[in-house]
């Protein structure tokens, strides 16, 4: 009797194994088209020319950063290396889309896309000058052979500071994580910040909408400046709502340096972003970076504490299980060793550039994959 029981279980295990192997084999036989979507804060991508209309004097040869042509060229080369390699663990091609921020003007992007490491990708540029007084903007780079834009616009974020002529001075007194300081018009108290960039086009025949953001900084402290970012989140949600009213099946990607983590009000309430796919309602937004933040991962560090300010979020239409059209697969933070400070006070932090060393950025880039079954 024992013999027959043992033989029965062996037969059953063999059958389970064969069925399992058959399922894996079927999954492996499926072929997918893959595109990488990335965002990177380029951290002070300035040329060496003084623009009289912006506060860029420190990024000139005579400025505090001693910013020379050779340093600028090294910065471009470093950035191109990163852009060429983001997401390469799963996709050997460089990203189809790259959202960027802290960009002085279109000219620096034209120099960037001509770098030897990425020139063969033939990146197109969508960029607008924004009212930010430092002269830093957001932009989208895209591979022309894969994406055809049909429309693009910059949508301003109007913020006003209720106060007096001392407002600008108060905003400068801060222990902010970044060196991004807002400027205030002392006549009408408008706070100058970046526009939100909306791009619509076709990714190999499928319409996709992309919003690129750089929300107001934490100058003046996180709590006092939070209403500015909450307003940015509400504007982002308004843009998404307008797209969904036109087409309830719209595929929408919103990305950027939000100067807030996935758990802050601007993201959780303003955008209504959810951490888990099964919690996202119709017309809702999925944020794959919230669970990463819960695990202690980060894109930026301050006083040995990590946070994920750089995020890419997606509409519910991009997280469905049917891969007959483009859907989200998985996301990540690109934090390879060459991007990390290896010694000194800031060991382990992103390797930013300084007066003495041309690094990469004080942020790690983020990315996710769009896939479709062939």
Describe this protein's structure:
It is a single chain. It is globular, with a radius of gyration of 23 Å. It has helices at 2-29, 69-85, 106-112, 167-172, 222-246, 265-271, 289-294, and strands at 32-45, 97-103, 123-127, 137-143, 147-155, 159-160, 183-184, 190-192, 196-203, 206-214, 252-257, 273-274, 285-286, 300-302, 305-307, 310-315, 327-333, 366-373. With 374 residues, it is α+β, with helices and mostly antiparallel strands. The model is unreliable at 1-6, 8-27 and 164-177 (pLDDT under 50). The chain starts with a helix and ends with a strand. The strands form 4 sheets. Strands 5-9-10-11-16-13-12 form a 7-stranded mixed beta sheet. A 6-stranded mixed beta sheet has the order 3-4-2-1-18-17, with helices on one face. Strands 6-8-7 form a 3-stranded antiparallel beta sheet. Strand 9 and strand 10 form a beta hairpin.
What is this structure's SSE topology?
Layout: H1 2-29, E1 32-45, H2 69-85, E2 97-103, H3 106-112, E3 123-127, E4 137-143, E5 147-155, E6 159-160, H4 167-172, E7 183-184, E8 190-192, E9 196-203, E10 206-214, H5 222-246, E11 252-257, H6 265-271, E12 273-274, E13 285-286, H7 289-294, E14 300-302, E15 305-307, E16 310-315, E17 327-333, E18 366-373
Parallel strand pairs: 1-2, 10-11, 12-13
Antiparallel strand pairs: 1-18, 2-4, 3-4, 5-9, 6-8, 7-8, 9-10, 11-16, 13-16, 14-15, 17-18
């Amino acid at each position: 009797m024992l013999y027959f029981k043992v033989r029965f279980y062996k037969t059953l295990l063999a059958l389970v194994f064969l069925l399992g192997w058959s399922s894996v084999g079927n999954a492996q036989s499926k072929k997918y088209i893959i595109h990488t979507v990335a965002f990177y804060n380029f951290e002070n991508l300035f040329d060496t020319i003084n623009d009289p209309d912006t506060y860029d004097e420190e990024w000139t040869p005579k400025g505090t950063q001693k910013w020379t042509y050779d340093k600028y060229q090294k910065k471009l080369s470093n950035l191109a290396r990163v852009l060429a390699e983001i997401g390469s663990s799963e996709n050997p091609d460089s990203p189809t889309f790259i959202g960027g921020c802290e960009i002085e003007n279109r000219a620096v992007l034209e120099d960037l896309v001509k770098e030897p490491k990425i020139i063969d990708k033939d990146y197109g540029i969508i960029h607008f000058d924004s009212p930010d007084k430092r002269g830093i903007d957001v932009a989208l780079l895209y591979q022309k052979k894969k994406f055809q834009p049909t429309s693009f616009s910059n949508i301003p974020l109007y913020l006003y500071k209720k106060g007096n002529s001392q407002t600008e001075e108060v905003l400068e007194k801060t222990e902010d994580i970044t060196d991004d300081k807002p400027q205030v018009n002392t006549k009408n108290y408008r706070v100058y910040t970046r526009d939100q960039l909306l791009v619509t086009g076709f990714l190999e025949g499928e319409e996709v909408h992309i919003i690129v953001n750089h929300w107001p900084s934490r100058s003046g402290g996180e709590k006092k400046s939070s209403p500015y970012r909450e307003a940015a989140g509400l504007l982002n949600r308004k843009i998404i709502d307008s797209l969904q009213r036109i087409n309830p099946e719209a595929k929408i990607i919103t990305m950027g340096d939000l100067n807030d983590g996935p758990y802050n009000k601007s993201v959780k309430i303003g955008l209504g972003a959810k951490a888990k796919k099964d919690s996202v309602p119709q017309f809702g937004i999925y944020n794959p970076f919230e669970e990463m933040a819960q695990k202690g991962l980060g894109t930026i560090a301050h006083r040995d504490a990590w946070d994920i300010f750089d995020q890419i979020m997606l509409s519910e239409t991009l997280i469905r299980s049917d891969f007959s059209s483009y859907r989200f697969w998985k996301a990540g933070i690109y934090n390879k060793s060459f991007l990390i400070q290896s010694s000194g006070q800031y060991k382990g932090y992103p390797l930013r550039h300084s007066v003495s060393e041309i690094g990469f950025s004080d942020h790690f880039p983020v990315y996710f994959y769009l896939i479709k079954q062939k």
